[in-house]
Structures are given as C-alpha cells and as structure tokens.
Amino acid sequence: METITIISRELNLSPENVSSVVKLLEEGATLPFIARYRKERTGSLDEVAIGLIRDRMDQLKTLDERKTAILKSLTERSLLTRELQAEIEAAATLTGLEDVYEKYRPKKRTRAQDAREKGLEPLAGFLLKQSGQDPLLEAESYVSPEKGVDSAQDALAGARDILAETMNEDADIRAKIRNLFIHTAMIQSSAKKGKEEEGAKFKDYFDWSENAFKAPSHRVLAMFRGQNEDVLTVHVLPDEDQALSLMEGRYVKNGSQSAEEVRAAVKDGYKRLLSKSIEKECMAELKSRADETAIHVFAANLKELLLSAPLGQKNILALDPGFRTGCKLVCLDAQGKLLHHDVIYLHDAAAGKKTLLKLVKAYKTEAVAIGNGTAGRETEAFVRELGLSDAIPIVMVDESGASIYSASETARQEFPDHDITVRGAVSIGRRLMDPLSELVKLDPKSIGVGQYQHDVDQKRLKKSLDDVVVFCVNQVGVEVNTAGRELLARVSGLNDTIAGNMIAFRNENGPFRSRKSFLKVPRLGPKAFEQAAGFLRIHDGDHPLDRSGIHPESYAVVEKMANDLRIRVQDLLMNPEQIAKIDLNRYVTVSIGLPTLKDIVKELASPGRDPRKQFQAFRFDDTIHDIKDLVPGMKVPGIVTNVTAFGAFVDIGVHQDGLVHISQLADRFVKNPAEVVTVRQIVTVTVLEVNVKRKRISLSMKKR
In Å, how far are 302, 366, 631, 699 from 299, measured between CA atoms? Predict the structure, then answer.
C-alpha cells in the first residue's frame, strides 16, 4: 500500500486506479491489454500512464532491494542500530539512502583510518570544539614516533584527515552541497593537449562552459562522448567559495586557532573528497537526464516511422539502386511473396527499360518502390522515363537498416536460396507495402531515427523502444494468417516461441478459421489467449467479430445487442442505422462498463480499422539531384527523416539530409521540435546555406 500511495501521489493518479494497474501487471497483463480491455478497472488510463506506473514500481523495487542489502551488510558487521535502521527505512530515494550509508560503507584504506589507528580521534574532537586553547600544544601529547606520529604538525594533519572524512560523510552537508551543484554548477569542457586535430568534430566544445542542469541533452551527450573518446576533459563544478562558505557555516564556530584547523579540514574535505564525490553523482545524473530526453526523442520518432501510412496489398516492383553492380530488382505479389528477381544497369538504358516494361506487364505491377541510397535519384529518373501509367506510383523508400536485415538470420531463414541483394530489394518493396510489418524485423537502433543512440543507457533504450514496437503492433492489430514470426511475437501475450508455434500450426492445418482455434496452438494457454486474442485479426473468420478489435470475452454482449435489435451480428457490422439504436446503458454490468461498450460500438462501425493515415505518394523536385544543384533561396519539397532536440533532418533528394535548426522550424518560438514536425512528414523547405565541402545543408521552414 505504501508503494501505491507513493506512485499515486507522484503521478497525481487515484490510488484505486494505481492499485488496479499494479495488480493487473502482477497477474501478467501487458500494457496494451490493460489500456485497451481493462478501462473500467484503471479509469481508462492510457499506455503512457500505465508505463509510468510500471517503471516507478520497478524503481521502488530497486530501492527496497538496496535497503535490504544495506541492512544485511550493517547487521553482518554489527553496525546496525535501531535509529540507523529507522533512518534507512525512511529514505525515499536511492541518493538519500546512499547518503545515510556513506558513513558506514566499507572503504578502501583511507588517510582518516590511518589517523584513527594512530589514536588521533580525540585530537580531532578537540579541534571541533574550537576552544581557546593552543591546538599545537594539545597535539604535542599525541606525538608517538612508534605509531608514526613524528611531530605535533603530523598529529594535527591526521586530525584534519579525520575531520575531512567526517564532513564528507555528513548526510546533511552532502545534501546541501548537492543542492548547490544542481542549482549553480557549470559544465565545463576543454580539449586535451595534442587531441585538437584528431578530435576536430568536437571543436565546439574545446573551450565550453554553461549551466550544467540547464544544458540541452544533445550538448551534454556530445561532451560526454568527447570525454569517452579521450578528446575532451569535462567537469561539473559550482563556485568553490560558495561551497566552502556553506561548509564553514556548519563547522567553523569562531576565529580561534582550532577553528583555523577546522577551516583547513573543510577545504581539504571539499576539494579532495566531497566535491569529487558529488561531481561524479551529478555527472551521472546529467547523463541519466540526457539519456531520458534522447530516448524519448528516439521513441517518438520510431513510433511515427512504424505507424507510417502503408500503401497496402499491391503488386510491387522494387529496386535496390546501384551504379557499378547494377540495380537489383524484385517483383512481389500483393502478399509480399517474391515472384521474380533480376538486375538492370543504368548505363545500359535500352536493355534496362526493356526489362522493366516487360516485368511491369508480366507481374501486373501496381507500384514501384526505389531505395533512397546511392544512385536512388538516378534510378528514379530512369524509371520515370518509362512513361508508366499515372495509376502506378513511383515511390522513394527509406532503406535505412535494409542491409542489416538482408544479412540477418531472419532474412536467411526467409530466403535461404537468395543472396543479400535480393533480400534487400524485397525489404524495400515490403516497406512500401506495410512499413510496420517489415520494420519489426530490425533492431530499432539500426533504423536511424535516434539522437546519440549509441551513447545512452542501452538497457533503458531497449526497454523504451520495445514498448514502442509493441504499442504500434497492437494498436494496428495483426492479421494472423499472413503475419510473419517477428510481427506475431510483438502481439500482447505472445513471444517468439508461441509465434513460431502459430506459424507451424498454420502451415500444417491451413489458415486459422476462428480465434478459438488459437487455443490449439502449443504453449498458447488461456492467459496468453486472453492477452492476445483481441489484437489478432482473422479477415474471413467463421465468427464475424473475429476481424474486429472486439475481444472474444465481449462477443456475448454484442450478440445480445444484435438479438435485441432482431438482427444477426454480421448485419450489425458497419451498419450506422442499427448501431445508432443501441442504448449502451442497457448493457452495463459489473465487468463491462461504458468505456468498453463505447469501444465496442466504435469497432462495430469500422471493424478492424487501420489507425494509420492514408498513403500519400511523395515526389522530389526533378531538377535537383545533387547538393551542387542547390542554391540559397530555393523552395523545395522534402520529407522529414529524423527529429532531434535541436531540430529536424529533411531529405530533399540530394543524398545528404539538410538540417532545419529548431530556430528555423516556425515563425514562432519552438521549445520542442516534435511540436512542429514528425518523422515521414512531407514539408516544403527553403535552402538557407550550402557547404558542398563539408556536405552541410541548412534549411528553413519559416513562412516569412
């Protein structure tokens, strides 16, 4: 209950809804299932809120596990007192917990430990009282050459070491110094001597300084990358005088000689111990915050990409462009099955055009997909010269990651008798047909819509991106009789093993005829069925609702609605006149409330509706093929390929994406580029500046 109270307070959610989500998660329910089919229990919380509850649960679990480990360590070392246990159990954050534990943490040999073993702790206590007595005279009594204390000055130095460590372990002081860092520290980077030339890409950070906790994520990650590559030195520090003044305010009581010794201990404790410890903490916190922002940007971009508008089931002729090795082409049927593959060469125009026209006719091509890599624009121009019907769209397809897919185990299993060039061309064609189905075969990091994705916490990144993939797959729904293993494995409640079993069952017994038959699949038990069934579609199933997003557990209520209207269930589907007659309040029960009933009616009106946008063909400016063709002031069409914290990258068809800096995204102030643009959005941009040598293009989306 304490966990639920904490989460509900932090996220401003009702304890009842949080409790329901926690219980459902503990029962093995997935985020998509809870959000879609358990709205009554959660107060209609969406995937984002449910994900936040899940993640906070994990954090609190980690905190509890750390408390348990610390208590065990203290008990084993006979250091645990009732007061200390209460302080540990009351700690609300990992940072606060570690501050409490700092004093008792097993340490490497320290100067303070040496001083204590030399019997200097009473002298440290004497200094801390800051009486009017001469500390040097007091220290004389601690001189002991056999203990390694050769003089009064040695004794005082040892006492100061004890005081410095005591200050470093003071939880209250640590909290105050940490607060000073957070509010005033500057992040400073400088070039390491002799690294300027090899680290030229970090030139902007050779002498850089700004407020650490206000620095944008991309700059923080850039500096840390420079440090990791041994080009930059990075520090995060506040004004030293402020820090020392804060510590002296707690420990220095007067102007006595002993107070001067304490003041020296303060300076040593801060510079040698505390500042380094808190700086390390703050750098970790800055990295964590920057990671969170970068991961959020990546996740948002991936979502837009996965939910790109599909062309749909069409006969596709797909080309993977190339100059020297030729253009590999494939012909696919409307289900994405490979029917034919060939190669044409752009320098042999007559033969290439003859081949293409022959294949378009033979395989009844309904669309042409062309990869946007090397020779992409030249291949596009070549195809447009064929004079194909306007009814056959010619589309440039982003081929990021296609080469990784073509060399993957998944591609080898799918096309064991074809080389990577054929597999790559197939992937390009299928991406046009259905981006989601094809892109789930890739590691999301290879798709190229991130920002510093290789620098962020890889575990957090994977978790976030996996959530996005699962969300997108389940939002769209999966046609069970045509889906591949990778797509099925992302369905709520399923995994790679069950997906493989479903395909094997389908191959052996023919297409699934009903959702009930899923239960015949090995290892697909009642729990997996409950989680998955509503997201799996059977277009021509035995039950009319099997093609909808209505869960089988709700079929009975739909059948009752139809009976009350004296019609069949199939006559209720896509029948607005009959649907309008349904009084939802008549069907409210303990388990089914108005939120679910409203979803049911929405599905009845448009069963299995694809939530993605309608496909819109895009065409680059035919007069522009190379960066040298660009002139400042030109207005050109483009398509957004990546959105970052500092702007958006736009493909304008010259083999090099241009950057629309955040300041050029609109005629108003833009805090977050995602407010203005999304990945795959079609835009018109103005060319601001072109640097051919550095291959940099600056663009603007401002209207004036």
Answer: 5, 33, 34, 24
Spatial distance between the Cα atoms of 574 and 579, rounded to a whole number of angstroms: 8
pLDDT value, residue 193: 93
Residue at 192 is within a domain: no
List pLDDT tens digits, range 461-519. Answer: 999 999 999 999 999 999 999 999 999 999 999 999 999 999 999 999 999 999 999 99
Q: d(Cα 310, Cα 478) in Å, to the nearest integer?
A: 14
**182 Cβ contact partners less than 8 Å away, ≥ 6 residues apart:** 213, 282
- Dig out the tokens for 91 from the structure: 């700690």
Residue carrying structure tokens 């094809």: 438
pTM for this entry: 0.90
Token pair for residue 678? 């999304």
Domain boundaries, position 544: 486-605
Task: Give the list of residues 6+ apart from residue 89 with CB closer than 8 angstroms, or none.
Answer: 67
Residue 449 confidence class, pLDDT cut points 50, 70, 90? confident
Contact 681, 398 (CB under 8 A): no
Q: Cα separation of 630 and 654, whole Å?
A: 9
Q: Do residues 55 and 100 both lie within one domain?
A: yes
Distance CA 81, CA 582 (A): 67
In a domain, 141, yes or no: no
Structural domains of the chain, count: 4
The answer to whether residues 370 and 383 touch, using CB atoms and an 8 Å cutoff, is yes
Taking a C-beta distance cutoff of 8 angstroms, is the pair 237, 177 a contact? Answer: no
pLDDT tens digits for range 334-376? 999 999 999 999 999 999 999 999 999 999 999 999 999 889 9
637, 619 contact by CB (below 8 A): yes
E strands along 272-382, which residues? Answer: 316-320, 327-332, 338-344, 367-371
Task: Count CB neighbours of 575 within 10 A.
Answer: 15
pLDDT at 655 over 90: no
> Is the pLDDT reported for residue 448 higher than 80?
no
Q: Which of 84, 104, 124 is the last residue of a domain?
A: 104
Judge if 525 and 601 occupy the same domain.
Answer: yes
* Contact (CB, 8 A) for 264 and 156: no
DSSP string across 9-52: HHHT--HHHHHHHHHHHHTT--HHHHHHH-HHHHTS--HHHHHH
In SS3 terms, 134-165 reads as CHHHHHHCCCEHHHCECCHHHHHHHHHHHHHH
Q: 254-284, pLDDT tens digit by residue?
A: 999 999 999 999 999 999 999 999 999 999 9
DSSP 170: -
Helix (H, G, I), strand (E, B) or coil at 611: coil
pLDDT at 704 (0 to 100): 79
Summarised one tens digit per residue, pLDDT across range 662-672 is: 999 999 999 99
Tokens of 532: 């998955």
Is the Cβ–Cβ distance between 543 and 514 less than 8 Å? yes
Give the position of tokens 């009789």. Answer: 481
Q: What is the pLDDT of residues 284-316, one digit of tens each?
A: 999 999 999 999 999 999 999 999 999 999 999
* pLDDT(76) > 80: yes
- Could you give the CA distance from residue 247 to residue 252 in angstroms, rounded to a whole number? 8
CA distance 219 to 209: 11
Cβ-based burial of 235 (10 A; exposed 0-12, middle 13-18, buried ≥19): middle
